[in-house]
Amino acid sequence: MRSSPGPRGGDHPARTPHLVTIAHGTRTAVGNTVARAITDAAAERLGWSATASYVELCAPLFADVVAACELPADGPVVAVPLLLSVGVHVRQDLPGAVRDAGRDDVVLGGALGPDPLLAAAQADRLRGAGARPGQPVVLVAAGSSDPDALADLDAAAGHLAHAWGAPVRVATLTGLGPRVEQVVRRGTRCRRTCWRPDTSTAGSPRWHRRRAQWWWRT
Predict the structure, then answer these.
(1) For the segment 66-93, what is each residue's pLDDT rounded down to a tens digit?
(2) For 112-152, how does the pLDDT look when each residue is reduced to its tens digit (9 = 90+)?
């Protein structure tokens, strides 16, 4: 039986990366639990070790994780933001944390969205919540001061409109973009079936949920 050749000059055995996910973080425990579940599922599929981290409001913070020397990896660290669009965190905070840590073995990815796969998941959620295909939808984001985040929201609405087969308008709770009360006319009958937390969530999603319900019921 012929044996496989070993590494030749300059070749090195492949090293297994370590996955670090970066969710925004929330004061609502279930939101942080979802981020950890996503991380565990990705680690199992990839066959990598993994750590769930957060931008703020929940430990461990990404800045602390990336600065730690004891990351369980014999290869590079692949950091993946679980954020749905560009914004201050993706453009400034996360690269700044890597830079401050002084590490050269961290590969930092971009935002997860917009993406047709996310839109397909949103359409599934709409159907599961009882919405009928063809009904108009308002896609609500937390909002950002970054103009490119608003462009991403418009692109996400386009993906969802294609997946849902109906018009999709956008609204934001803070930052740039129209507010929910500007998009949904007073007295309009509508039901909140889902909304889209974004990269600039300034606290618990429950706070945004209360605001959206108040506006939509006025």
Answers:
(1) 988 666 656 789 999 999 888 889 998 9
(2) 999 999 999 999 999 998 998 888 899 999 888 889 999 99
Helix axes 147-164 and 116-128, enclosed angle (nearest 10): 60
* DSSP-assigned beta bridge partners for residue 79: 20, 108
Those residues with Cβ within 8 angstroms of residue 85's Cβ, 6 or more apart along the chain or in another chain? 111, 113, 114, 141, 144, 148, 149, 152, 153, 156, 198, 199
Which tokens go with 69? Answer: 């020397």
Closest CA to 49 of 16, 22, 13: 16
d(CA 86, CA 125): 23
Give CA separation, 194 vs 121, 164, 209, in Å: 11, 13, 9
pTM of the model: 0.78
Nearest to 22 by CA among 78, 67, 76: 78
Q: Give the distance from CA 55 to its chain's centroid.
A: 11
Total residues belonging to the chain: 218
User: Alpha helix (H) ranges present in the chain?
Assistant: 29-46, 62-67, 88, 94-101, 116-128, 147-164, 180-183, 205-217
Distance separating alpha carbons of residues 77 and 80, to the nearest angstrom = 10
